[in-house]
Amino acid sequence: MRCLALAEGLRDRGHAVTFAMASGAEMMRGRCAAEKLSIEAISAEPASRGDLTATMHMASNVPADLVVIDGPGLHAALGPSIGAAKLGMLVLDDEGFADALPGAFVLNPNVWAANSDYPEVSPARLMLGVDHVLLRREFRAPARSADLASPVRRILITLGASDPDNFAGAVVRRLGSSPEFSDCEIHVVVGPLNEGFGDTQAKGGASVSIHRNPPNMAALMDSSDLAMSAAGGTLWELYRRGTPTLPVVIASNQRRNSEWLVARGMAARTIGDPDDAVAGLAALMADHTRRDELSRAGRLLVDGEGVSRVVATLERNFDLK
Questions:
Q1: What distances in angstroms separate CA 231 from CA 39, 67, 105, 124, 255, one per listed residue?
Q2: Degrees (nearest 5) of the Cα angle 54, 108, 100?
Q3: What does the pLDDT read at residue 140?
Q4: What average pLDDT does the structure give for the chain?
Q5: Over the stretch 208-217, which tens digit does the pLDDT of each residue have?
Q6: Into how many domains does the chain fold?
Q7: Which residue range(s) make up the domain with 294?
Q8: CA 307 and chain centroid, separation
Q9: Residue 33, exposed/middle/buried by CB under 10 A (0-12, 13-18, 19+)?
Q10: What distance separates the 2 farthest-apart alpha carbons in the chain?
Q11: Does residue 118 sit in the same domain as residue 52?
Q12: Do 86 and 101 contact (CB within 8 A), yes or no?
């Protein structure tokens, strides 16, 4: 979704945008149509060398002034491709990928990102940290003002596009059997690559609502009193909205975000276990002062101007049509 956020910003400035996708193209067609964005499906294994080759071929034929690459697994092929292509390139990275990327701009919006993670890339080509978080238009609106002293009634659980170990399902089952959550509505956002959550609702005793590809995620966040999120892109959306959030780690590239937040008091500890997650939610549910602190800290950390900053940098450095 962060590429959609960038596309919105580019379209707002009058630039044409085409999506090239090896998976999820059908799911994105409605959103792209609403934003007047073109979309093309690629017949290749997602995040494979074939995916990258087809993308570069399509970009040459458009022709494109800039190619934006976002996909784990593509980094190994990026170096040679950038060297061979006469195209501007922006690489979205969450790993601190340090191999040489000659001529590419690198965007890493994670809180820990620093110039030292990219020794082969000129600092002038780096856009690092949460000042460059790409948020869709719905999240860039002014953050909510909520009464966080009221009892927690709605809890949002969202773990991104995939949840291979069904972490959300394990948490929901525990919430359903925990008396302190008996009066809560549990709202679970299930990502497009999450196929393991279907029967979870029947296994929990709490009121559980499942949302797949919700049309307005910001509204769902704003209506929630408390949230649990993977420590990745969705977490920055929740922080911008001011929703008190418990970050959890379900993938290796989220751990550094969690550790950064722990070190600065925005999380009690790094959580990667469903039992710890439920305990963390219970602690926050019982402490409205802490929820208010987290809401304020999140809004201060993520100001919602990342898209504008990134688009401005791209316009200064590329002749975008």
A1: 29, 27, 24, 27, 7
A2: 65
A3: 86
A4: 85
A5: 898 887 888 9
A6: 2
A7: 139-301
A8: 13
A9: exposed
A10: 61
A11: yes
A12: no
